[in-house]
Design goal:
The protein has 18 helices and 35 strands. The chain is an alpha/beta fold.
C-alpha cells in the first residue's frame, strides 16, 4: 500500500517501484500496471502510464507503450500457422484495444482493460494452441472475415455436457435493431445438448442483408469448423429485426436449418414458398405498432395454404415487447428442441424463388443461369414415383439438379417433364449432379456445365458485392479540389456501411457514438486509385467512385464497360443515350480485368452525386427508402439536381443489355408529381386485385415533380418495386374514414388513400377491399393508422407486374 501511495505523487515515477522482471510473466506485469493506473485514475482523475513512468492528464498521453507491446505479441501470434483458428479473435481484441486507447480522454481505465485483455489472450493462445478445445460456458469470440480481414465478434455458449464425440445442436440468435451480440444475450448460461450463438451482423441495424447476412453465415461456418455441431439441428431465432432475419435467412437457405422461431418479426418481402420445408413457431402481439402483426399474419397465412408447417402464437397487450410473452416463449423453446432438419433425400417438393444471385439453392435444386427477364427465377420441383420429376421453371435457362441428394434412385433412368412437356430422359446410372439446360424451346441435359470466362449475371444490384468475399472501395484522386474531396468523402461513407448504401453519421447511435446503420467494428478498406495493386483487382470486388477522368482504375476499365459518361451524357454500348448536365450513374458489372469479380461504379461530373446517402447508392441497394429487399437494376441514371425517378436498365445472364426499354411506354403526361406517381401506383394495384381502395406512399414531396419528362418510362417505375407483393384486407366504411382522418393528422405521414374516401359516399358498415404494397407502405400503415385487420392476406400479385399490366393503359 505504501508503494501505491508513492505513485499518487505525480513527481514520483512508477519506475521507482520494485522491479521483478525475472519473477513475473509479461502479462502479470501488464496487469499490475493496469491495476495501478486504474487506481490512480479513480483517485485523481489522471492517467498513469506504467511503461514510461509519471502521471499525466489523459488527453495528452494514452497507454501507447503498453499497447505497442501487446500489438507486437499479437503480430507474432497472427504469423503462426498453428494459430489460424484464433486470428479473428486476436484481431478483434486488437481493434478493441486500439479503439479504446483512441478514446483514452474519456475512458482511460477501460482502455487499459482492453489492452490487458489483448495481452492476456495472446499469451494464453501462444502458450496453448489447443486452448479453443478447453473453452467452457459463455464466451465472446470472433472469426476472421474474408471481406476485410477483420475480426468480427459473436457470443457463444458451450453446452454444459459438450463432448466432441456427440455433435450438439446449434441455436443461432439474431438481435433486434440497436442491439448487438452481447446486449441481447445477457444472462445466457450453458445448457445441455445445445450451443447458443448470438451474432452481431456487422452493425446494430444491418437488417441481416448484404454483409449483415454474410456475417451470420460465416459465424455458423466458423462454429461448425471448430466445434462438433449436428448439421441437422441448426435453428434460427430472433426478435424484431432478428425475427425478420430469421425469415430472411430461413427462406434464402432452407436446406441449412432445422427450424425458425421469430418474435415480432416480418416476412412481407420474402418468397414464402421457400419456407415450405422450414418449421416455424412465431410469436407476435396484435397491438405492436412498431412492427405490425400484418407483416407475419399475411405471409404465414399464405405459407399455411401452401402446406407449410407453421405455428403462429398470437397474443395481445405486449406492444412490441412480445419477448416478454413468457408462455409463448416457453412453448416455442420446447418446440424448437424437437425440430430436426429432414434428410434431403426425403424432400419431394421444393418451391424456391431466387430473387438475387447470392441465394440460388433450395435443397437439391439450384439456379445455374437466370432467364432473360430482370425478375426472380423460380423452380417448383415435385419428385414423383418411378423416378419422374415434374419441374415448373420460370425465368430459368439452366437448373442444376443435385441428384445424389435427391429422392431419385441412381440405378434407374430419370425422366424430367418441364412445364408439363413430354419428359426428357437421363439414362442410368445417374450422376451426382446434372444441369437441365434450355435449348431453344426444348430442354436437354448438360453434363459438362462449362462455365463462361466471366461470371454469369444475376439480379441483386450492388449488394452482390457484399456477399462475404473480399471488398475494396476505390476513390479517384484526379479533378478539382471539390471533386477529389467529394470522392474521398464518398469512400469514407461507403466504408461505414454493411451494404451498398452510403450512410452518413446521422440517425440513432449507441453510447459509443456509432450510428446503428454503420459497421460497428471497423470500416471497410478504402484506397485511392493510385494505390490499387494488380493483386487487389484480382482478389476483391470493387466499389469504384469517380469518372474515367477522375479515377485511373475506372479509366483502365472504361474501354470494356458497357456505359460511359462523357460531356454530361450517359451512353450505353447499344447506342441508348441519356443527355443531361447533372447526371449521375451507378453500374454493376463484372470486372473486365478479373471476370469472376464484380464492380459497383458510381460516377458523375457533379460532386453532389458523391454525398453520403447518395441517391444512386440507395437505388442500387434496393430502392429509395429500401423499398424492396433486393433489386433487379444494373444501371441507374438520375439527375443530381432534381428528386426524380431514376432511369434504369438491366442485363441478361450474358451481360447483354435487355431489349425492350424503348417499347416500354413513357409515363403519361398526367403523372408528374410524387403524389400523382403514388396515385398511379394505387390505381394499378387496385386493378390487379379488384380492390376498392389503395394505400400507397408518396415519392418525395407530393406536389413536386418526380418524373424526367420524355425519359421516365413505366419500366423505370416498376423496377423500383422489384418483386414487391401486394397485400389486401377489408375495412368497413367507418374504419376507412377513421384511417383517412388519422393519416390527415399524422405528422409527416407519406401515406395517401386513393381514391380519397368521401364521407358521404362510404357506408359505415359496408366492407371495402383495400390493396397496399407490402413494403414501407405497410410499415407506415401500422405505425400511422394503428389498425391490424384480421383479414389481411397476400394477394399473390406483385406491384411491378401490376404497373407493367395496367399503368400503360392509364
Amino acid at each position: 500500500m505504501a508503494d501505491l501511495q508513492r505513485t499518487l505523487n505525480p513527481r514520483v515515477s512508477l519506475n521507482a517501484l520494485p522491479k521483478l522482471p525475472l519473477l513475473m510473466h509479461r502479462s502479470v506485469r501488464l496487469r499490475l500496471g493496469v491495476f495501478l493506473a486504474a487506481a490512480i485514475w479513480a483517485a485523481t482523475g489522471l492517467w498513469a502510464d506504467p511503461a514510461v513512468g509519471g502521471v499525466v492528464a489523459p488527453a495528452s498521453l494514452a497507454p501507447d507503450p503498453l499497447l505497442a507491446e501487446a500489438r507486437t505479441a499479437a503480430e507474432k501470434a497472427l504469423a503462426r500457422p498453428d494459430l489460424l483458428a484464433y486470428r479473428g479473435w486476436i484481431k478483434f481484441l486488437r481493434y478493441e484495444a486500439e479503439t479504446a486507447v483512441a478514446r483514452t480522454a474519456k475512458v482511460a481505465p477501460a482502455a487499459a482493460e482492453k489492452v490487458q485483455r489483448l495481452a492476456d489472450w495472446v499469451a494464453r493462445i501462444s502458450a496453448d494452441p489447443k486452448i479453443l478445445a478447453t473453452l467452457t460456458g459463455p464466451q465472446e469470440w470472433a472469426y476472421e472475415s474474408p471481406v476485410d480481414d477483420s475480426g468480427q465478434p459473436f457470443k457463444i455458449v458451450i453446452p454444459s455436457d459438450y463432448d466432441p464425440a456427440h455433435p450438439a445442436a446449434l441455436s443461432v440468435y439474431m438481435h433486434g435493431y440497436s442491439g448487438n451480440h452481447l446486449e441481447h444475450s445477457v444472462g445466457w448460461t450453458s445448457k445441455p445438448g445445445v450451443f447458443l450463438v448470438s451474432v452481431l451482423g456487422r452493425s446494430r441495424g444491418g437488417g441481416y442483408r448484404a454483409l449483415s447476412e454474410a456475417d451470420v453465415l460465416q459465424v455458423i461456418d466458423y462454429v461448425q469448423a471448430h466445434w462438433s455441431i449436428d448439421p441437422n439441428r441448426i435453428s434460427l431465432n430472433g426478435g424484431s429485426m432478428g425475427g425478420g432475419g430469421t425469415y430472411r435467412l430461413g427462406s434464402r437457405y432452407p436446406q441449412r436449418f432445422s427450424s425458425g422461431r421469430p418474435s415480432c418479426g416480418y416476412a412481407s418481402l420474402i418468397p414464402v414458398g421457400n419456407l415450405l420445408t422450414l418449421p416455424l413457431y412465431a410469436t407476435h402481439s396484435a397491438d405492436d405498432w412498431t412492427v405490425s402483426i400484418l407483416h407475419e399474419r399475411g405471409p404465414l397465412a399464405r405459407l399455411r395454404e401452401l402446406g407449410g408447417k407453421v405455428i403462429f402464437d398470437e397474443t395481445n397487450g405486449y406492444g412490441h415487447a412480445v419477448w416478454n410473452y413468457k408462455e409463448g416463449n416457453e412453448r416455442g423453446a420446447a418446440w424448437e428442441k424437437l425440430q430436426v432438419r429432414p434428410d434431403s433425400r426425403t424432400v419431394r417438393r421444393i418451391d424456391y424463388t431466387a430473387t438475387d444471385g447470392a441465394a440460388v439453392r433450395g435443397w437439391w435444386g439450384e439456379v445455374a443461369e437466370w432467364g432473360a427477364a430482370a425478375r426472380p427465377a423460380r423452380f417448383v420441383l415435385v419428385a414423383d414415383t418411378a423416378n419422374l420429376l415434374h419441374a415448373e421453371l420460370t425465368n430459368i435457362n439452366r437448373l442444376r439438379l443435385r441428384l445424389a441428394e435427391s429422392p431419385f434412385d441412381p440405378a434407374q433412368a430419370l425422366q424430367v417433364s418441364v412445364n408439363g412437356a413430354v419428359p426428357v430422359t437421363l439414362p442410368a446410372p445417374l450422376p451426382a449432379e446434372i444441369v437441365l439446360a434450355r435449348s431453344g424451346s426444348a430442354w436437354t441435359f448438360d453434363a459438362t456445365d462449362a462455365a463462361p470466362s466471366w461470371r454469369r449475371h444475376t439480379p441483386g444490384g450492388a449488394n452482390l458485392l457484399y456477399d462475404g468475399e473480399p471488398l475494396l472501395i476505390v476513390y479517384g484522386t484526379h479533378g478539382t479540389e471539390a471533386e477529389v474531396s467529394a470522392m474521398r468523402a464518398a469512400a469514407e461513407a461507403a466504408s461505414k456501411s454493411p451494404s451498398a448504401a452510403w450512410v452518413d453519421d446521422s440517425g440513432d447511435a449507441g453510447a459509443d457514438g456509432v450510428p446503428h446503420s454503420q459497421n460497428l467494428y471497423g470500416r471497410l478498406p478504402t484506397k485511392s486509385d493510385t494505390a490499387v495493386t494488380d493483386a487487389d483487382l484480382v482478389r476483391c470486388h470493387l466499389v469504384l467512385i469517380g469518372t474515367a477522368a477522375q479515377n485511373s482504375i475506372v479509366a483502365r476499365l472504361a474501354p470494356k464497360l458497357p456505359v460511359r459518361l462523357e460531356n454530361g451524357a450517359a451512353t450505353c454500348s447499344d447506342g441508348v443515350s441519356f443527355p443531361g448536365s447533372h447526371l449521375a450513374l451507378g453500374l454493376v458489372h463484372y470486372n473486365p480485368l478479373a471476370a469472376d469479380r464484380l464492380i459497383f461504379w458510381v460516377a458523375s461530373q457533379d460532386p453532389a452525386a458523391y454525398a453520403a446517402n447518395s441517391a444512386v447508392a440507395a437505388v442500387m441497394n434496393g430502392g429509395p427508402g429500401y423499398r424492396g429487399s433486393v433489386t433487379g437494376i444494373d444501371l441507374v441514371v438520375l439527375d443530381c439536381a432534381a428528386q426524380t425517378l431514376p432511369i434504369t436498365r438491366s442485363f441478361d445472364s450474358a451481360w447483354n443489355w435487355l431489349a425492350g426499354r424503348e417499347t416500354s411506354p413513357l409515363l403519361p403526361t398526367s403523372i408528374r408529381t410524387g403524389g400523382e406517381v403514388a396515385d398511379a401506383v394505387g390505381r394499378a394495384i387496385r386493378a390487379a386485385t379488384g380492390a376498392d381502395f389503395a394505400i400507397t406512399d408518396n415519392f418525395g414531396p407530393a406536389d413536386k415533380s418526380a418524373v424526367m419528362a420524355e425519359w421516365t418510362r413505366v419500366c423505370d417505375l416498376s423496377a423500383l418495386y422489384y418483386h414487391t407483393p401486394i397485400g389486401v384486407f377489408d375495412l368497413t366504411g367507418a374504419e376507412l374514414q377513421s384511417a383517412a382522418q388519422r393519416l390527415a393528422t399524422a405528422k409527416g405521414s407519406p401515406l395517401a388513400i386513393s381514391p380519397a374516401p368521401g364521407g358521404a359516399k362510404l357506408v359505415a358498415d359496408h366492407h371495402y377491399r383495400v390493396a397496399i404494397p407490402a413494403d414501407f407502405s405497410l410499415w407506415n400503415f401500422g405505425s400511422d393508422v394503428q389498425l391490424a385487420p384480421a383479414s389481411y392476406r397476400l394477394s399473390g400479385q406483385f406491384v411491378d407486374d401490376a404497373l407493367e399490366r395496367f399503368l400503360a393503359k392509364d
